[in-house]
């Protein structure tokens, strides 16, 4: 059991900006739950529920993140691949580990330890999740964005994390962000090699990591040894607000109504947000009344498909 009282992730909490990329250090690398034998057992439990994602080392920065497993499938069984990760030429992600009782405790220990500091600046932590990456040497996580805030922590081996600020429109445009939030479509999120020189570049070893705000574009490259990495993720009031505004802007764009980013648009965003929130609340009430299931972003834990 890790301490609940001292933050297990260290950064300058006094100056913490929840919407800025930040280097961190951490004290979870020696936790026995990250030993490969334990991760193989976890992989067996998750594989039976379809919660392992994998691709080979032929995936590159520009590969479609969404389609990498289909474009570059591994040949072997996922559990055997993790057992032989040194030579497997594979990138493996154990998804939604918070659905496993043992690893939910880990997610709770780490996120509970940072929560008081996070909430001072960014209240409303919800939809907590954990993701463990077990990777062969020289494998790549293709360029992409995610909805959650993310503490990415290196456990074993070396990784280079390229990450751009969440408002860097040179790298991912407003339209691409609107499409991502409104349709979960990453089609307009496209890699260009010249992005590298605009990135924060973190060369991570065990005990090091980074805080990546919601929708920070990122690309990850594994070094010459096998690597184990964990991400702890969550939503907050501010990520839900940002996502809802982009979602509405995306839907309006589909109807031919384009809102240019400007001061006027920010004022418009406020109106959009309150209108959309009221509409969503009404929809949820009607869903509950008719017994239909809703994707509840304010739930304590991220919901896995089929969970
Ligand atoms: Fe990611």
From TrEMBL:
SUPFAM superfamilies registered for this protein in UniProt: Clavaminate synthase-like
Source species, domain of life: Bacteria
SMART domains: JmjC
InterPro entries hit by this protein: Cupin_8, JmjC_dom
Domain JmjC: from-to ranges: 89-251
The protein, known as: JmjC domain-containing protein
């Amino acid at each position: 059991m890790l301490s609940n009282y001292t933050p297990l992730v260290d950064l300058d909490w006094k100056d913490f900006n929840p919407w800025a990329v930040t280097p961190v250090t951490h004290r979870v690398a020696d936790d026995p739950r990250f030993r490969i034998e334990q991760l193989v057992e976890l992989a067996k439990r998750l594989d039976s529920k379809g919660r392992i994602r994998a691709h080979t080392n032929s995936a590159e920065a520009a590969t479609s993140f969404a389609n990498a497993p289909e474009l570059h499938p591994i040949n072997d069984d996922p559990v055997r691949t993790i057992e032989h990760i040194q030579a497997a030429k594979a990138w493996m992600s154990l998804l939604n580990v918070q659905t496993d009782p043992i690893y939910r405790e880990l997610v709770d220990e780490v996120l509970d330890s940072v929560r008081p500091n996070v909430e001072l600046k960014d209240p409303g932590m919800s939809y907590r999740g954990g993701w463990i990456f077990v990777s062969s040497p020289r494998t790549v996580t293709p360029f992409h964005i995610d909805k959650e805030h993310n503490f990415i922590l290196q456990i074993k081996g070396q990784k280079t994390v390229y990450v751009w600020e969440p408002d860097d429109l040179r790298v991912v445009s407003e339209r691409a962000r609107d499409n991502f939030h409104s349709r979960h479509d990453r089609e307009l999120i496209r890699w260009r090699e010249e992005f590298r020189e605009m990135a924060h570049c973190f060369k991570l070893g065990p005990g090091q990591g980074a805080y990546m705000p919601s929708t920070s574009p990122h690309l990850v490259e594994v070094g010459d040894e096998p690597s184990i990495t964990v991400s702890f993720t969550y939503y907050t009031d501010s990520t839900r607000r940002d996502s809802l505004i982009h979602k509405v802007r995306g839907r309006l764009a589909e109807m031919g109504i384009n809102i240019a980013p400007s001061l006027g648009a920010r004022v418009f965003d406020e109106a959009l947000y309150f209108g959309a929130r009221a509409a969503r609340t009404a929809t949820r009430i009607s869903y509950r009344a008719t017994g239909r299931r809703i994707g509840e972003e304010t739930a304590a834990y991220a919901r896995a498909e089929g969970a």
